[in-house]
Design goal:
Elements: E1 9-12, E2 14-22, H1 24-27, E3 38-44, E4 46-47, E5 50-51, E6 53-54, H2 64-70, E7 85-91, E8 98-100, H3 104-110, E9 119-125, E10 131-136, H4 141-149, H5 153-156, E11 157-161, E12 166-170, E13 176-177, E14 183-189, E15 195-198, H6 213-219, E16 231-233, E17 243-247, E18 251-266, E19 271-282, E20 285-288, E21 292-295, E22 300-315
Antiparallel strand pairs: 1-6, 1-21, 2-3, 3-7, 4-5, 7-14, 8-15, 9-12, 9-14, 10-11, 10-13, 12-16, 17-18, 18-22, 19-20, 19-21, 19-22
Bound molecules: zinc ion.
Residues 99, 101, 119, 176, 194 line the site of zinc ion.
């Protein structure tokens, strides 16, 4: 096929309603969604439950999943049968359920060939004295099963303090929960498989939401990774630099704080970018807080100007 001009893929996100969601995604980020239960903005997603739409340019109106399938060269022609990653902003007005995700092997076998789910969080904002749940206190699988079946949640759940600018990697098998008040940028494998361990005995439409106790006990890692190995602060990184925060076999995560001007090379198969704060330009095109876009393969030199904070990610190749 003929050489096409490389353009930035700006995406129209998909927002979701959740019992624990709030109003920040509309009021602070300007996404056009009604309701006061907006939990998630799937900023860069090609998942069947929320497939983003390209906003402008040659692919305007097309779903990201279609563009990925039809133009693999824009994404480095990698051997994925579907778009591999997803970026979300999560606004938790209330606590989310205590949950865990399976790995690829378990999900393939038990969830119709789905990907497993490895994810990570960057805390964009939170109240003072904020906490979240990461890991658990069971020493053996027997104790894990006893604590869960016995409803010994206070003993079981490991709740830790967090602050703005913390980064948390959540491997499959890690018990985790976002607590009310947190605003989070989540980067994850393109998967929606979640096992709910405990939902604080809440009701949704008059009924408790389904729990997945036995699958959870199957997949939870025992003992849990230490707190020190789970959370790190990533504040105070150099400005105008694409700082790598973390890399695992699924993704590499970067933070970029533009103050004035920065120029870097887009040398990755593709680079997913979300504007967390502020505004500016990318190669002369205006961007602002809440915008999500993809710099395709072979984009070359990227020039950004303004005052803005961005998160970026790509597949680890
Ligand atoms: Zn999760």
């Amino acid at each position: 096929m003929s050489e096409m001009k490389k353009e930035i893929l700006f995406l129209q996100p998909v927002c979701t309603h959740n019992i624990w969601g709030g109003t920040k995604l509309r009021e602070e980020f300007g996404y056009p969604v009604e309701g006061d239960d907006i939990g998630e903005c799937w900023g860069i997603s090609a998942h069947p439950n929320g497939d983003g739409t390209v906003k402008s340019g040659a692919f305007a109106g097309r779903k990201l999943s279609e563009v990925f399938k039809e133009y693999p060269q824009l994404f480095g022609s990698l051997a994925y049968d579907r778009f591999p990653l997803m970026t979300k902003i999560i606004d938790a007005r209330d606590d989310l359920s205590i949950q865990v995700h399976p790995d690829d092997n378990y999900a393939r076998e038990h969830e119709n060939g789905s990907f497993g789910k490895t994810e990570c969080w960057y805390i964009m904002d939170c109240p003072q004295d904020a906490t979240l749940v990461i890991g658990h206190n069971a020493a053996s699988r027997k104790e894990l099963s006893d604590m869960i079946h016995g409803g010994r949640w206070k003993e079981f759940i490991r709740e830790i303090p967090v602050k703005k600018g913390d980064f948390i990697q959540i491997d499959p098998g890690t018990v985790h929960a976002i607590k009310g008040g947190l605003l989070i940028l989540e980067t994850q494998q393109n998967s929606d498989i979640t096992y709910r361990v405990y939902d604080y005995d809440r009701l949704s439409n008059g009924k408790p939401r389904e729990l997945h106790v036995e699958k959870s006990i199957d997949v939870i890692t025992v003992p849990a990774k230490s707190v020190e190995d789970s959370v790190k602060s990533v504040l105070g990184l150099p400005e105008n630099t694409l700082n790598e925060l973390y890399a695992c076999s699924y993704y590499s995560i970067f933070k970029l704080d533009v103050n004035g001007e920065t120029v870097f090379e887009q040398k990755y198969p593709f680079l997913m970018v979300s504007v967390l704060e502020g505004s500016g330009t990318v190669d002369g095109q205006d961007v602002k807080k809440g915008d999500h876009f993809i710099l395709p393969c072979g984009f070359g030199t990227v020039k950004m100007q303004g005052r803005m904070s961005l998160m970026a990610s790509t597949v680890t190749s």
